Fold this protein.
Amino acid sequence: MDLWRTSLSDYHGGFEPSPARSFCASRTRATPASGIRPDSKVLSTISDSSGLRIKDLSEMLQIPHQSTNALVQYLKRKHLVEKMGQDLRALYALTEVGRAALVEVTRRQAA
């Protein structure tokens, strides 16, 4: 029995997360066989350019736009990337914290 679902159903009248949301959440935490987490790949790709739109990042990584958007929003909440303007098509770039995190990830992968 899943405690999380049980406690939420007690308070929210049987609320269950959608399968799509559960799938996306599990994918962002997964580490593929390459050992590189999707979020570190996003950081690396953004770092290699002066900034990218989500559409461009999605095309470069060859992953669905919605998945890319979810990853970028996650990284934004963690203060690893920032949007460079208010326009919907504004570029995303690494913050100082994001650059430091990428250096640390790269160092760990090399070890």
